Amino acid sequence: MAITNTAAFAQTTQTNTAIVVGVDDLTSAPANTILLVTAGADGGLLTGVSAIPRATVTASSLHLFISKDSGTTQVLLDSALMAAHTVAATTAVPVTTFTAYSEDAPLRLDAADRIYAGSGVALAGGIAFTAEWSDF
């Protein structure tokens, strides 16, 4: 980003989803993580991440990783617990929210930072992660 005397404001609001089915292993090169966010050329602000199971699920540890090298190295950034739930036609499917990020308290992303999603429990039907962010 060019240095100017004007404030940098978020320019482009974005959302994306990623479906996680496999188990990650919480290492610096975890298997089975899925790309959720790629910050723009001037960086961005992550304002929300949530997840929802697409099938009956046991209690699951959900993970977010950040990468500054196009995904080669991924560092554990955050975790949330998804409660066990039986999906049925007569029940609402609960959403699990990562509470550290909001419009009031965004995560600042450097240029081209990537956020990956993963789960501690495999689910053949998948867990749908949704992210909201704005690029500068």
Give the helices and strands, then pairings.
Layout: E1 12-20, E2 34-38, E3 44-53, E4 60-67, E5 75-82, E6 96-98, E7 107-109, E8 114-119, E9 127-135
Antiparallel strand pairs: 1-9, 2-8, 3-6, 3-7, 3-9, 4-5, 4-8
- How would you sum up the major sheet? 5 strands, antiparallel
> In total, how many beta strands?
9
Radius of gyration: 16 Å
- Summed up, the helix count is 0
Q: Segments where pLDDT lies below 50 for 5+ residues? A: none
Q: What is the H-and-E element order?
A: EEEEEEEEE
- End-to-end Cα distance, whole Å, is 9 Å
Average pLDDT works out at 93
The coarse silhouette is globular
What percent of residues are in strands? 35-45%
Helix content: under 10%
Structural class by sheet pairing and helices: mainly beta
